[in-house]
Amino acid sequence: MSLPLELVDAACEYLDSPALAAVARSSSLLCAVAQRILYRDVAIARPNLPLTVALAAKPRLARHVRAFKIVVDSTSNVLPAYYRALSTALSQMPELVSLSISIPPRLTSSDALPSGPGVCFPRLRSFQASFTLDQHLVGFLSNAPRVAVLSLDGTAHSLYSADVPATLLPHLEVFSGSSHVAEALVPGRPVSAIFLTSGDLTVDAVAALAQSAAPVWTLDATTTSLPLPILETLAEAMPELENIRLTTTYNLWDEFFNTPFIQNIKNALMAMDHLKSANVSGMLWKWLTKDGRVLTNEPHLPSPPPPDSTPSDVDSQWTYDNHNTYYYH
């Protein structure tokens, strides 16, 4: 071949998967180039589940993988041997940067993740899994010290059961998962964005999350209590917050038409000097902060509902001011 290998490599970057497969069959030299690109980003679901077994059997292919995503739903007829092959395949991907694993909820981290001497992922930055924190997962994460984005989607009833060493995840920046796991992982680590997908954001939970080693800029959570005490605690504990989405399961039907209630929520939000957006149970506030702090969006109260109305009767009345009128404070 007369072309420099760098040019061949650059040209192959523009080819789709079928074309790369054809290139790989053309010569041994081109095969190496094409396979490196073909297996760089791997996504596995029901149609191509056997690819996992192929990667387990061929370490030279697995070593090319940089991003790996697998989804095995509960309806897939997958035997335990398949998950052993998955674990083997992952152990042969030391250059992984992104890993996403979604498997049926009856399974745990020990069913899918490799462990043992020599298993190391020094470049792994993003990790998502459909299970919660346990001791096996702690061991896996101990071998992936550069993880910055962590998402654990275990059910709300799957409480973590692991001892978390202080040296685990020293570069963690973004966490998504249950409030219980967040309270174990966020303190002492430089987490700036927290997304609680299950559990209750309580005043005590806020105090724990505020122990992040970095300012918390983004918080998305659900509380079972009235939002005002939580917001007042956030204003004091996380003064650097820029974006909040707080949902409550508390019945706010009567409060939605209570002007002092809305004003108190607004006052708590105004106490956060860096806040840019806040969504509190569907009530939206937005600020511009370029030249001072300017409120550009806030909820408007509809007319009080008739005594015999229900929430669905007045859904269409609830509107927000989305115009370009600025509100100065």
Tags for this model:
329 residues, 13-stranded mixed beta sheet, two-stranded antiparallel sheet
Describe this structure in words.
This protein is an alpha/beta fold. Among the domains are: 38 residues; 116 residues. The chain contains twelve helices and 15 strands. The strands form two sheets. Strands 1-2-3-4-5-6-7-8-9-10-11-12-15 form a 13-stranded mixed beta sheet. It has a two-stranded antiparallel sheet with strand order 13-14. Strand 6, helix 9 and strand 7 form a beta-alpha-beta unit. Helix 2 runs antiparallel to helix 3 and helix 11 runs parallel beside helix 12. The longest helix has 12 residues. The radius of gyration is 25 Å and the shape is elongated. The C terminus is likely disordered. It comes from Coprinellus micaceus (Glistening ink-cap mushroom). This is F-box domain-containing protein. InterPro entries: LRR_dom_sf.
Rg from Cα: 25 Å
Distance between the termini: 70 Å
Mean pLDDT, rounded to whole units? Answer: 86
Oligomer: single chain
Low-confidence stretches: 314-329
Biggest β-sheet: strands ordered side by side in the sheet: 1-2-3-4-5-6-7-8-9-10-11-12-15
- The residue fraction in helices comes out at 25-40%
* Topology pattern, helix = H, strand = E: HHHEHHEHEHEHEEHEHEHEHEEEEEE
How many strands, what sense, and barrel or not for the largest sheet?
13 strands, mixed
SSE-based structural type: alpha/beta
Number of strands: 15
H/I helix tally: 12
Beta content comes to 15-25%
Note the overall shape: elongated
